[in-house]
């Protein structure tokens, strides 16, 4: 019976405290009761903490979208994390594309120009996919995890202590109100004693909460370090991707002559108005294009750098006809604009970049990119 009586009294006491807080809160909202205000510094700490929490949530969510655009996959990863189970390995889009390209190459024939290119591009896509996987893993550990730890750890502690502080503040203001209403000396003495106790509890809780809020500065320092690590991971990832694509470009450049005259092309290649020197050096000249022995008044070794198409004379024999595969807009006066399906005459010059030929159409003359042409016999 004694234990039961104690529990009943405790429940009654808790109900009384809850009712007192509810009354105080309601009267404050209605403007019928005074409210103890926190000092300006404390209010600034609260505002800074709220801002940190809100922006951390937004940055976390958007980074998750950046790393995993598929919402279904994000939900799956979230569930695995909550169940404390390892997230199963997932094939990246680049790796899946590599698989399809390799299978297509085997179907079309790995020895054909298209098949060879599919294999090389597929291998690069596989490497890009692997680099993406490493970047996602690194970013998750070094950036996302610290942000989540703050929201699920430190912030929950701060929120809990703030709720306790709010209750202590309501208790304090309720005591102040009761002291004002007390008439008898005995009632006033009891109210003053209760007020001293609640004031002590409020001050103690305010100090605890203040220390936690001031710790937000350390949170910013930690997140700053994590942000630097995220940027470093992202930089390494894009540098890898850039190098992989450069390597692929060089590999494809070595076989560019294979595709000249291939009527199966279905999309225009990028314009090569000023190809990099390293790529130009690795490209072989097209041996079937006739070469003009000399340019009037210009040494052959510098023919390309000072080429003026209007001064170029076609060879007496050996010029070839070419059909234009795609529209091409001339970059300057030395180039010849092209329209798809038109026929032009082409020939080469000593020292020219093998990616280019001299094209003639009536009285018009200029450089044209080889990859835009189908050379006719």
From TrEMBL:
<comment type="similarity">
    <text>Belongs to the endophilin family.</text>
</comment>
<dbReference type="GO" id="GO:0006915">
    <property type="term" value="P:apoptotic process"/>
</dbReference>
<dbReference type="InterPro" id="IPR050384">
    <property type="entry name" value="Endophilin_SH3RF"/>
</dbReference>
<comment type="subunit">
    <text>Homodimer, and heterodimer with SH3GLB1.</text>
</comment>
<keyword id="KW-0728">SH3 domain</keyword>
<dbReference type="InterPro" id="IPR001452">
    <property type="entry name" value="SH3_domain"/>
</dbReference>
<feature type="domain" description="BAR">
    <location>
        <begin position="27"/>
        <end position="261"/>
    </location>
</feature>
<dbReference type="GO" id="GO:0000139">
    <property type="term" value="C:Golgi membrane"/>
</dbReference>
<keyword id="KW-0175">Coiled coil</keyword>
<dbReference type="Pfam" id="PF14604">
    <property type="entry name" value="SH3_9"/>
</dbReference>
<dbReference type="InterPro" id="IPR027267">
    <property type="entry name" value="AH/BAR_dom_sf"/>
</dbReference>
<dbReference type="InterPro" id="IPR004148">
    <property type="entry name" value="BAR_dom"/>
</dbReference>
<keyword id="KW-1000">Mitochondrion outer membrane</keyword>
<feature type="domain" description="SH3">
    <location>
        <begin position="317"/>
        <end position="377"/>
    </location>
</feature>
<dbReference type="InterPro" id="IPR036028">
    <property type="entry name" value="SH3-like_dom_sf"/>
</dbReference>
<keyword id="KW-0333">Golgi apparatus</keyword>
<keyword id="KW-0472">Membrane</keyword>
<keyword id="KW-0496">Mitochondrion</keyword>
<keyword id="KW-0963">Cytoplasm</keyword>
<dbReference type="GO" id="GO:0061024">
    <property type="term" value="P:membrane organization"/>
</dbReference>
<keyword id="KW-0053">Apoptosis</keyword>
<dbReference type="GO" id="GO:0005741">
    <property type="term" value="C:mitochondrial outer membrane"/>
</dbReference>
<protein>
    <recommendedName>
        <fullName>Endophilin-B1</fullName>
    </recommendedName>
</protein>
<dbReference type="InterPro" id="IPR028503">
    <property type="entry name" value="SH3GLB_SH3"/>
</dbReference>
<dbReference type="Pfam" id="PF03114">
    <property type="entry name" value="BAR"/>
</dbReference>
């Amino acid at each position: 019976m004694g234990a039961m009586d104690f529990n009943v009294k405790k429940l009654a006491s808790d109900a009384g405290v809850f009712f007192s807080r509810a009354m105080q809160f309601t009267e404050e909202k209605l403007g019928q009761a005074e409210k103890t205000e926190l000092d300006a510094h404390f209010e600034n700490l609260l505002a800074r903490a709220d801002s940190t929490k809100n922006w951390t949530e937004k940055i976390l969510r958007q980074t998750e979208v950046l790393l995993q655009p598929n919402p279904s996959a994000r939900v799956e990863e979230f569930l695995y994390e909550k169940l404390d189970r390892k997230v199963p390995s997932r094939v990246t889009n680049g790796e899946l594309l590599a698989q399809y390209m390799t299978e297509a190459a085997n179907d079309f024939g790995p020895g054909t120009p298209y098949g060879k290119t599919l294999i090389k591009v597929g291998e690069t896509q596989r490497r890009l996919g692997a680099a993406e996987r490493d970047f996602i893993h690194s970013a998750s550990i070094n950036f996302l995890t610290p942000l989540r730890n703050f929201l699920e750890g430190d912030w929950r502690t701060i929120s809990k202590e703030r709720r306790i502080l709010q209750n202590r503040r309501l208790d304090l203001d309720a005591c102040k109100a009761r002291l004002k209403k007390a008439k008898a000396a005995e009632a006033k003495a009891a109210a003053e004693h209760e007020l001293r106790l609640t004031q002590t509890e409020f001050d103690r809780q305010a100090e605890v909460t203040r220390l936690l809020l001031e710790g937000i500065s350390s949170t910013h320092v930690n997140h700053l370090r994590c942000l630097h690590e995220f940027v470093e991971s992202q930089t390494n990832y894009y540098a890898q991707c850039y190098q992989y694509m450069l390597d692929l470009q060089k590999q494809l450049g070595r076989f560019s002559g294979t595709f000249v005259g291939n009527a199966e092309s279905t999309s225009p290649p990028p314009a090569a108005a000023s190809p990099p020197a390293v790529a130009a050096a690795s490209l072989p000249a097209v041996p079937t294009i006739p070469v003009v022995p000399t340019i009037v008044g210009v040494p052959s070794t510098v023919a390309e750098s000072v080429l003026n198409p209007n001064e170029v004379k076609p060879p007496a024999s050996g010029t070839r006809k070419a059909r234009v595969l795609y529209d091409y807009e001339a970059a300057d006066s030395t180039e010849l604009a092209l329209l798809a399906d038109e026929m032009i005459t082409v020939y080469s010059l000593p020292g020219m970049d093998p990616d280019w030929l001299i094209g003639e159409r009536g009285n018009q003359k200029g450089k044209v990119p080889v990859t835009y042409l189908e050379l006719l016999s």
